[in-house]
C-alpha cells in the first residue's frame, strides 16, 4: 500500500526515534515532515535525515498522519494553536506520556481518530517495546497504520487505553531500571576487585544473554533463575541478600509510583 505522509510534531528525542525508524524501514524521506521549536534543531534534522522541516500549520495541511511528540506540558498550547485546523478524518498519533485520548478529543474536531502510543528508547537499536491503544474514533485500520509506523523500531503490542499508565511504568520507564541495575552491578564488580571495563563487559554481555534467553526460550523467569541457583551455592547466597534487603518489594513500589505519576500528569493536563 502507498506510504502515508507523516508529520512528527515536536521532534525531540522520541520524535527523532520515529523519524530514523521509519527511514530505516524504507519509508520515503519525501513522505516525512518535522516541526520543532528551534530553527537550529529543524536544520539539524533536515540535514541528518533528508526530511522537510516545516511549521505546524504546513504539517497539518500536508500530512496524512500527525505524530505528536511534544512534552505533555506543551500539548495544550500546541492544540490551542493547531487543533481547530485539523480535519476530522486525519489520524493523530500521540506519543505524549500520560495524556489520554480524551485530552485530545476535547481539543480536536468531533470524530478525529486518535491512537495513543508508548514506546521506549531501545528504539535507537530497533529493540523498542511499543504499546498501542485506540481512542474512541480510531478503527482497526488506524491501529494497523500505527503498527506499520512502529514495528520498524522493535516489537508492538495492542492494549486497552486503561492499561497505558501501567505500560508507561513498566516498559516506557523500564530501560532506566535496567541501567540502574547494571550500574550497581558494575560498582559491585569494582568493589570485588575487578577493573571497571572488565566489570562493564561482564555485566553487559550477561544482561544481553539473559534477555535473549528470556525472549527465545519460552521459559518462565523463575525456571531460568532456578537453573542458575545451585543448593548452598553462590547464587542463592546472593539472592537471599537481595530478598532480605527488599529488592522485590522495592521494584513493586517503584513501578506503582511511576504508574501513579503518569496518572498525575494526565490529571494536571486536563
Question: How are the SSEs ordered, and which strands pair?
Answer:
Blueprint: E1 6-9, H1 13-24, E2 32-35, H2 39-49, E3 52-53, H3 56-62, E4 65-68, H4 72-82, E5 91-94, H5 101-105, E6 114-118, E7 128-134, H6 140-150, E8 154-158, H7 164-172, H8 174-191, H9 196-217, H10 221-228, H11 234-244, H12 247-268
Parallel strand pairs: 1-2, 1-4, 2-3, 4-5, 5-6, 7-8
Antiparallel strand pairs: 6-7
Helix pairs in contact: 7-12, 8-9
Tag the structure with descriptive keywords.
8 strands, alpha/beta, 270 residues, 12 helices
Mind explaining what this structure looks like?
Helix content is 54%, strand content 13%. The protein has 270 residues and is of the alpha/beta class. It has an 8-stranded mixed β-sheet, sandwiched between helices. β7, α6 (140-150) and β8 form a beta-alpha-beta unit. α7 packs across α12 (247-268) and α8 packs across α9 (196-217). It is elongated, with a radius of gyration of 21 Å. The two termini are 37 Å apart. The model has no long low-confidence stretch (mean pLDDT 93).
Amino acid at each position: 500500500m502507498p506510504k502515508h505522509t507523516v508529520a512528527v510534531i515536536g521532534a525531540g528525542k522520541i520524535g527523532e526515534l520515529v523519524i530514523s525508524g521509519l527511514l530505516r524501514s524504507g519509508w520515503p524521506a519525501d513522505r516525512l515532515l518535522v516541526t520543532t521549536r528551534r530553527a537550529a534543531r529543524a536544520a539539524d534534522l533536515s540535514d541528518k535525515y533528508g526530511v522537510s522541516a516545516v511549521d505546524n500549520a504546513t504539517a497539518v495541511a500536508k500530512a496524512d498522519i500527525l505524530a505528536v511528540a511534544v512534552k505533555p506540558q506543551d500539548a495544550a498550547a500546541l492544540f490551542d494553536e493547531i487543533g481547530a485546523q485539523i480535519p476530522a478524518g486525519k489520524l493523530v498519533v500521540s506519543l505524549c506520556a500520560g495524556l489520554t485520548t480524551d485530552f485530545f478529543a476535547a481539543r480536536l474536531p468531533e470524530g478525529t481518530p486518535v491512537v495513543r502510543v508508548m514506546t521506549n528508547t531501545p528504539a535507537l537499536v530497533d529493540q523498542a517495546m511499543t504499546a498501542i491503544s485506540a481512542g474512541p474514533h480510531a478503527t482497526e485500520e488506524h491501529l494497523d497504520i500505527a503498527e506499520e509506523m512502529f514495528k520498524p523500531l522493535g516489537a508492538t503490542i495492542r492494549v486497552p487505553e486503561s492499561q497505558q499508565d501501567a505500560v508507561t511504568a513498566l516498559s516506557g520507564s523500564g530501560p532506566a531500571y535496567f541501567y540502574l541495575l547494571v550500574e550497581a552491578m558494575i560498582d559491585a564488580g569494582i568493589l570485588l576487585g575487578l577493573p571497571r571495563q572488565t566489570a562493564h563487559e561482564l555485566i553487559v554481555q550477561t544482561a544481553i544473554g539473559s534477555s535473549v534467553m528470556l525472549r527465545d526460550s519460552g521459559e518462565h523467569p523463575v525456571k531460568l533463575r532456578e537453573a542458575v541457583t545451585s543448593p548452598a551455592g553462590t547464587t542463592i547466597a546472593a539472592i537471599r541478600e537481595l530478598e532480605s534487603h527488599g529488592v522485590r518489594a522495592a521494584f513493586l513500589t517503584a513501578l506503582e509510583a511511576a504508574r501513579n505519576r503518569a496518572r498525575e500528569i494526565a490529571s494536571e493536563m486536563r
